Amino acid sequence: MNGSNGWRLLVCINRRLGSDTPSCGGRGSERLVERLVELCAARGLELPVETILCFGSCSRGPNIRLAPGGAFFHGVTEAGLPELVAQVAATVVAGPPESD
Ligand code: FES
């Protein structure tokens, strides 16, 4: 297993019911959380996957971010998750986030 090196994945699951404003949850982001956990585990990557309620990039969702300060993924689909996890794994294994 590879540790998280201080990284974590944040998935926006905000859902705006009764609104025409787009939201990540409204575009199915909740389904991505469980799949992300599975894909990380399959790679032996111990990376926390956390949910949040809005990055402020709602029209570009579903949105996922490697935190702190890592890659920001927009328009994520379930089909795109293996590539996302591969990219994230390369960053995580390379070392901890840069501190300010
Ligand atoms: S609803 Fe996901 S970024 Fe705003």
SSE class: alpha+beta
Give the name of the CATH superfamily of one domain: Glutaredoxin
Taking all Cα atoms into account, the compactness measure Rg is: 13 Å
Spatial strand sequence of the major β-sheet? 2-1-3-4
Give the overall silhouette.
globular
Largest sheet: number of strands, sense, barrel closure? 4 strands, mixed
The share of residues in helices is 25-40%
- Beta-strand portion reads 15-25%
Helices and strands, in order, run as EHEEEH
Poorly predicted parts: none
User: How many β-strands, per DSSP?
Assistant: 4
Q: Please name the CATH topology of one domain.
A: Glutaredoxin
Bound molecules: FE2/S2 (inorganic) cluster
Mean pLDDT: 94
Distinct helical segment count? 2
